[in-house]
Every structure is written in structure tokens, then in C-alpha cells.
Amino acid sequence: MSTARKGADRLFWFLALTGLIAGLVGLWTRLTVGHASANYGSYIPWGLWVSGYIYMIGLSAGAFVMSALVFVFRVKALERIGTLALLTALTTLIGALLMIWMDLGHMDRVWRMVLRTNFGSVMGWMAWLYGAYFVLLLVEFWQAMRLRLVLQADAPGLAGTLCRILTFGNRDASAASRRRDAARLRILGSIGIPLAIAFHGSVGAIFGVVGARPYWNSGLTPIIFLVGALLSGAALLAMVTAIWGPGKEDGDNTAIVVLIGRIILGLLAFDVILEWAEISIGLWSSLPAESASLKLILFGHYWWVYWGVHVGLGILLPALLLLFAGKRASAVGWAGGLIAATFMSVRLNIVIPGLAVPEMEGLRDAFQGPGLSFEYFPSSAEWLLFIFAVSTAALLFLLGKSLLPVVDHDANPDLEPQLQGGPGHVQ
User: Fold this and answer.
1) Cα-flanking dihedrals φ and ψ of residue 332, to 5°?
2) For residue 409, what pLDDT is reported?
3) Where are the domains of the chain?
4) Cα angle at 356 between 353 and 358, to 5 degrees?
5) CA–CA dist 418, 178 (Å, integer)
6) What share of the chain has pLDDT > 90, as a percent?
7) pLDDT on residue 416
8) What ranges in 300-408 are assigned the alpha helix state H?
């Protein structure tokens, strides 16, 4: 690993561990005082935690679809990052589920969503879709790793021991077993694509079906969620690949990162078009409730979140990097990191402004009391718990890529038959 990569690796370990330690304060506060430490209330019942949940769910769905380019569509140029994409999807999913679990009023009743499901509810469907997606991710990740676990099972130390355990006694490395692995991966990935679209589309549907919130109530809302997921997940994978992707030296994975950069640029353009359509039509139609939410985003107290964080750091700067320095892995990595990090502002600007506009004229002044406010900014406890969820996902990723042979730095040709699935590729 090059000096630059080692430095980045240490930095992310430091940030993840520091975030986890600080986030434990938020976790303790949530477990001891419940929702009393949060700043949302009766009028704005969803806040930072729901926004963080749909943000991380989008990262997971987008990273998974990128893995499908390898295992389903067999894009050879990306074949060496398939398992890295699956690890990214799995760890961000865990962070998202942790985040939404903490948002529940009665965390101990989460099992009822599965065992007592109301299938007339979109949330009821989501519980089953998330469960199926989580199981599929685990199985597909193990299947993608199986041959590598076998090849590393005799390595010394903790990593070797873990690889031996995770082979579950299956030490077959024959050409036939590799072809079976490739076939199973293609089936699992093919099942996972509609599943990822369904569960993240259902997140968008939760917002889109709320007729009382004109800002959300649109058939375009699930599509916006899906495109945003693809963009943010691909952007995160670009950063991850630029730092930890295959190759002993930084330049060895440039072609992979550059290709992901081109995908990101196309998705970014599509996302901007959808966003422009949503904002321009909403303002032009001048429906009071919808235009009021849009004006809050563009010109309200937190205008800088949209114009500075989202447009400036999340669209313009990454677009310039991809257009004028897109042939450099470091530039694409920075662009991907900026998009992935700032996409949280997009999720906040979906959740909060839709709730911050009174449903009835005069409601703002009709009642006074704790929680009866249309003004919201996350409390320190909310931020700390969000940091805890993000740091947990980051640490799981760092542990996974450190202890498991997720990344093939040596470009071992023995791994290619599993990824390509053709007998002609067997060494």
C-alpha cells in the first residue's frame, strides 16, 4: 500500500473511532431519556434520524446496483471491485437500520413489523423488503468471497483463522466450483436488483403517498429517491475504490475509478434535471403548500444548506473535478466523497421542509406548547446518535476490508474465473 493510501487509511480509522466514542454519548442519551433529548415534536415528527436513515439506505442501494454491474452484467472493467461494492452496501445498510431503529418510539416492538405486518401499509412491506435484502446481501457477499476465503484460509494470524471459519468447511477451489459460484452470484444479483429498487422505491413511496404534504405528494418522488440512491452510492464507491481499491500503487486502479467517475457524471446530470423539474414546476404552479416548502429550501433560514452544501459542494465542485480532472483517480475520489457526504443535505431538504409548512392556515398560532413548533434544528444528542450510526457503519467496513480478503491488491488471476464464470478463464 502506498504512503498516501496508508495515510488515508489511518485518517479514516481515527475518524471512525473518534466518531464512535463521541456517538456513544448520543446512544446513552437515547436509551436513557428516549426522545426527550430530540428537537422534533408533534408538527415535525421526523428529523435528523429519519433523514440519516434514508441517506444511508440510498448509499446501500446505490452501491449494490454497482456490484450488479460486475456479477449480473459482467462489466469486466469493474470486476475487481464487486466484493468491495457489496461490503459497502452491507455496512451502510446496517448503519441505516440502526438509525431508524433508534428513531422508533418503542424500540423493543420492532419485531411486530415482521410478525404482525399490516400489508396495507407501505412500512409493513418495507420491513419484509429490508429483511430479504439484508439476508440476500449476506449470502451474496459470502458467495463472492468464498474462493478468496478458501485461498486465504491457511494464512497466519486472526485473518487466516477468520477465513477458515467463514469457509464453513467448503474448501473446494476447483474450476467447477468457481463456475457454480459465478452462476449463483448472477442469480443472487439478479434477484437483488429489483429488490433494491423495490425497497428504496418504497421509501420514496412513503413520502409520495402523503396527500396532506403537497411537497412530497408526487409520482416523481420514488424516482427521485432511486436516482439519488444510485448517484450517492456510486459516489461513495468511487471514493472507497480510490482509497482502498485493487492495486499496490495508487495508479493501478485509475482505470476503474475513472470509469466510475463517468458513471457518476451521468447520474449527477440526470439528478440535476430531476431536481430542476421538481423545483421549477413547483414554483411555477404556485400551489401555496408546495411552493412554501420550496421557498423554505431556497430562501429560508437554512438556505445555505441548499446553495452552499448541496449546490456548491455537492454539484458544482464535483462536476468541475469530473469534467476537468476526471482522468485522475484522486480527483474522482474527491468528487465522489463530496457528493456522498453532501447528499445528506438533500435528504434533510426532503424531510424537514415538507413538515415545516402548516397543514392549515393559522395552525402555527392556534396552539402553544412543547413540541408544537414548525421550527426545527437537530439537538446535540441527535447529531451524536447520527454520528454513532455513521461511525458504526464505517468501522464495520474498515474491519471487513482489513480482516477479510475483500480487495485483491495483487490481481491474482486465480480469482478471475469466479468473477467471469467461464471455463475458458480457468488457470
Assistant:
1) -65, -40
2) 54
3) 17-421
4) 130
5) 5
6) 56
7) 47
8) 303-304, 317-325, 329-355, 363-366, 380-403
Q: Model confidence over 40-94: pLDDT tens digits? A: 988 889 999 999 999 999 999 999 999 999 999 999 889 889 999 999 999 999 9
pTM over 0.85: yes
Average pLDDT, the chain: 88
* Beta-carbon count within 10 A of 307 CB: 13
Give, as one character, the DSSP assignment of residue 109.
G
Coil, strand or helix: which one is 66? Answer: helix
User: Which residue shows C-alpha cell 412500512?
Assistant: 123
Chain centre distance of CA 328: 24
Neighbouring C-alpha atoms within 13 Å toward the C-beta of 303: 5
Rg (CA), the chain: 22
User: Under a CB-based contact definition with an 8 Å cutoff, are residues 354 and 216 in contact?
Assistant: yes
Assign 206 to helix, strand or coil. Answer: helix
Residue 200 pLDDT > 80: no
Give the DSSP letter of residue 308.
I
- DSSP H helical ranges for 104-174: 112-115, 122-152, 157-166
CA distance linking residue 386 with residue 118, whole number of Å: 29
Residue 338, C-alpha cell as written in the block: 463530496
Handedness of CA 49, 55, 60, 61 (dihedral sign): positive
Q: What is the mean pLDDT of residues 260-277?
A: 96
Per-residue pLDDT, averaged over 240-257, amounts to 79
> Which residue from 195, 147, 47, 49 is spatially nearest to 408, judged by alpha carbons?
147
Q: Which three cell numbers stand for residue 33?
A: 431519556
351 and 376 in contact (C-beta within 8 Å)? no
Report the largest interatomic distance among the alpha carbons of the chain, rounded to a whole angstrom: 76
Please report, for residues 113, 189, 207, 226, 350, the alpha-carbon distance to residue 197 in angstroms, rounded to integers and kept in the order given.
Answer: 21, 12, 16, 7, 19
C-alpha span between 36 and 15 (Å, rounded): 28
C-alpha closest to that of 196 among 319, 55, 57, 364:
57
CA 38 from chain centre, in angstroms, equals 24
In this predicted structure, what is the pLDDT of residue 22? 96
Q: Cα-Cα-Cα-Cα dihedral of 398, 400, 406, 409, to 10°?
A: 40
First to last CA, the chain: 27
Overall fold of domain 17-421: Formate dehydrogenase/DMSO reductase fold (1.20.1630)
Give the least confident one: 274-283, 341-350, 393-402: 274-283
